[in-house]
Amino acid sequence: MISIILVSVKETLLAYYELESILTSDEYAILIKLFYRKSTTVTKEELFKIKYGSTCKYTEGALSKFISRLNTKLNKIGVGSDSIKTVWGVGYKLY
Q: Exposed, middle or buried: residue 20 (CB in 10 Å: 0-12, 13-18, 19+)?
């Protein structure tokens, strides 16, 4: 569960206690969306619009891989490996 997290808008820097990770602009945008809707499901369609600008060009597998990479970055700074969970058939949820 994320409790203390710092996100720098200027640098898309993610920090948790003393550890830091640089996010891409897409990772930053999706993490902010998930953060503001914490503990509620964000649909795949909403995330497709953020990442790709539409809902129909890319596969769910591409979005899943992207979320997996974002989870890996969260894990590397000590937040946890499963901070973003899949809600099968619907979307993703930040815990």
A: middle
Tens digits of residue pLDDT in 31-78: 889 999 988 999 998 988 887 776 555 677 888 888 999 999 999 988
- Which helix (H) or strand (E) segment holds residue 52: the answer is helix 44-52
Residue 1 falls inside a structural domain: no
Of residues 27, 22, 37, the one with CA closest to residue 67:
27
- Using alpha carbons, select from 36, 6, 12 the residue that is nearest to residue 24: 12
Is the dihedral angle over the CA atoms 76, 4, 26, 58 positive or is it negative?
positive
DSSP state of 41: P
Model confidence pLDDT, tens digit, residues 70-89: 999 999 988 877 899 999 98
CATH number for the domain harbouring residue 78:
1.10.10.10
Domain range enclosing 60:
6-94
Q: Determine contact, residues 79/5, Cβ cutoff 8 Å.
A: yes
